[in-house]
Specification:
This protein is of the alpha/beta class. It has a single domain, classed as Hypothetical Protein Ychn, Chain: A (3-Layer(aba) Sandwich), CATH 3.40.1260. 34% of the residues lie in helices and 20% in strands. It contains four helices and five strands, in the order E-H-E-H-E-H-E-H-E. The chain has a five-stranded parallel beta sheet. Strand 3, helix 3 and strand 4 form a beta-alpha-beta unit. Helix 1 runs parallel beside helix 2. The radius of gyration is 13 Å and the shape is globular. The protein starts with a strand and ends with a strand.
């Protein structure tokens, strides 16, 4: 099944259930052979930092760090909102594998190509 799929995520440790489910959905999309991108914004950008997701593990789900690693290993990409990242004074040298800092124009371009999107 060709096509694209976008998951937008605005949460991290402030709502670990949403953060976890977002990556469950992202993994399902990439496993369905969709060009899948997770866009991290607001508090979600904190997940782009190495080690941040290590303690997040919602009951009934795989640990978030594993969901994120599996997503990238399967070919998914993680885009990190540049203004949100800068506002929180995060460390670009500590980005997780597969994460890229981008501006809003990249998200608009991806969605303009007809990608469905879900938000958490």
């Amino acid at each position: 099944m060709p096509g694209k799929f976008c998951v937008t995520l605005t949460c991290s440790k402030d709502n670990t259930d949403k953060a976890t489910v977002a990556f469950v959905v992202a993994n399902a999309a990439v496993a369905s052979e969709k060009e899948t991108m997770v866009f991290l914004s607001i508090e979600g950008v904190r997940l782009s930092q190495q080690g941040f997701a290590d303690t997040i593990h919602e009951e009934g789900f795989a640990p978030l760090k594993d969901l994120m690693a599996n997503f990238v290993k399967a070919g998914g990409v993680i885009w990190v909102c540049s203004p949100c990242f800068k506002k929180r004074k995060l460390d670009e040298a500590a980005l997780i594998p597969g994460a890229t800092i981008v501006g809003g124009a990249k998200l608009v371009e991806f969605l303009s190509a007809g990608s469905p999107s879900v938000s958490f």
